[in-house]
From TrEMBL:
<dbReference type="InterPro" id="IPR020476">
    <property type="entry name" value="Nudix_hydrolase"/>
</dbReference>
<dbReference type="InterPro" id="IPR000086">
    <property type="entry name" value="NUDIX_hydrolase_dom"/>
</dbReference>
<dbReference type="InterPro" id="IPR015797">
    <property type="entry name" value="NUDIX_hydrolase-like_dom_sf"/>
</dbReference>
<dbReference type="Pfam" id="PF00293">
    <property type="entry name" value="NUDIX"/>
</dbReference>
<protein>
    <submittedName>
        <fullName>NUDIX hydrolase</fullName>
    </submittedName>
</protein>
<dbReference type="InterPro" id="IPR020084">
    <property type="entry name" value="NUDIX_hydrolase_CS"/>
</dbReference>
<comment type="similarity">
    <text>Belongs to the Nudix hydrolase family.</text>
</comment>
<keyword id="KW-0378">Hydrolase</keyword>
<dbReference type="GO" id="GO:0016787">
    <property type="term" value="F:hydrolase activity"/>
</dbReference>
<feature type="domain" description="Nudix hydrolase">
    <location>
        <begin position="6"/>
        <end position="131"/>
    </location>
</feature>
Length: 140
């Protein structure tokens, strides 16, 4: 009998700081590059709790979650395995410091993001720029 394999739930957080800057982390582990703070949801953990926990662990920032932005589920979004990410919009104060599995955490203006973004985070951030400019969200 074949083993049934489910996609893994994950969360990502678009953290906006004053001055229209967002927080990205440089990953320590493959796939390497810049990414939104986030990670896997623990068993028994609510999505919003996981988003706040991952943000704190990777950036040292205590975030105020504002809302769910969108859920990204392309089976190819993570080269390691099929994941489904619920993305949250958040704000925070202070300057991020990379920790846990983040080699570094920095802020970037939305119009000057690094090119080497991991996963589908380029798509997520493009959707976010559109949302900030027009108020329109990605259509299903």
């Amino acid at each position: 009998m074949a083993e049934y394999r489910n996609p893994k739930p994950t969360v990502d957080c678009i953290i906006e700081l004053p001055g229209e800057r967002i927080v990205l982390i440089r990953r320590k582990n493959p796939p390497v590059g810049w990414a939104l703070p986030g990670g896997f949801v623990d068993e028994g953990e609510a999505l919003h709790t996981a988003a706040a926990r991952e943000a704190l662990e990777e950036t040292g920032l205590t975030v105020k979650l504002l809302e769910q932005f969108f859920t990204y589920s392309d089976p190819k979004r993570d080269p390691r395995q099929h994941t489904i990410s619920t993305v949250y919009l958040a704000t925070a104060e202070g300057e991020p410091k990379g920790a846990d599995d983040a080699a570094e955490a920095r802020t970037f203006p939305l119009d000057a993001l690094p090119q080497d973004l991991c996963f589908d985070h380029g798509t997520i951030l493009s959707d976010y720029r559109t949302y900030k400019r027009t108020g329109q969200r990605r259509k299903l």
